[in-house]
Automatic annotation (TrEMBL):
GO biological process, one term: bacterial-type flagellum organization
Entry annotated with the keyword rRNA-binding: no
Name of this protein: Flagellar biosynthesis protein FliZ
Organism: Priestia megaterium
Domain of life assignment: Bacteria
Region forming the signal peptide: 1-24
Cited InterPro entries: Flagellar_biosynth_FliO
Length: 213
């Protein structure tokens, strides 16, 4: 949507600065007509002089007008960037104020996924399939790293994506892929730690059963 506004503003600026009055040159009387009819010759000369005066008085595009056009165009672009930044910032603040927030996840099978959910100040790993099941809670250093990684990813994710040219989007997409890859690595590490904890709990339960026997 903002890209359309930018294109429209550019077209308006160009069209506004290119309105020049163009006059068609009317043919003057020939030499023969001038010799035969002196009055017609004098009228032709008078008409030519009027046309020259009108052409000389026609508005032209000066260097100052070009500078004003460029300044107006840059001003419109600056306002659009400021508006976009404000909207993104407002959106992030509203998202942070949500009580329940989905930070992301990954598919682990057909219609099954594992999601990281933030509830208040707590992070939980839940399994989503035929039903929703709480798998584990992320605490300590892992929680802080995950939140920091998520904030950085949201901050850099398409901040000026709507109005940036395509070649700049390619450059920023590489950076976004890097953040996404790091987030997935951190998420996978938390999943592995959760599996190890579960295995340790199962082993401890088996030991307790053997002791009771």
């Amino acid at each position: 949507m903002l890209r359309k506004f930018v294109i429209a503003a550019l077209l308006i600026s160009v069209l506004a600065g290119s309105n020049q009055i163009v006059y068609a040159e009317s043919g003057s009387a020939s030499v023969k007509e001038c010799l035969e009819k002196t009055e017609k010759c004098s009228e032709s000369k008078s008409t030519d002089s009027k046309e020259k005066t009108e052409l000389q008085g026609a508005p032209t595009l000066s260097a100052g007008d070009i500078v004003k056009m460029i300044f107006a165009f840059l001003l419109v672009i600056g306002l659009l960037f400021a508006l976009l930044k404000f909207v993104n910032k407002k959106g992030r603040l509203l998202q942070k104020n949500k009580v329940v927030q989905n930070l992301g996840g990954t598919n682990v099978g057909s219609s099954k996924s594992v999601q990281v959910v933030k509830v208040g100040n707590q992070l939980f790993i839940i399994g989503v399939g035929e039903n929703v099941q709480l798998l584990s809670e992320i605490t300590g250093q892992g929680k802080q790293q995950l939140l920091t990684q998520y904030d950085e990813q949201q901050k850099n994710e398409g901040e000026y994506k709507v109005v940036l040219p395509s070649f700049l989007e390619k450059l920023t997409s590489k950076k976004e892929e890097k953040f996404s890859h790091s987030f997935q690595q951190l998420f996978q590490r938390e999943m592995n730690e959760m599996k190890i904890k579960r295995q340790n709990v199962l082993k401890e339960l088996e030991r307790n059963k053997k002791k009771d026997e």
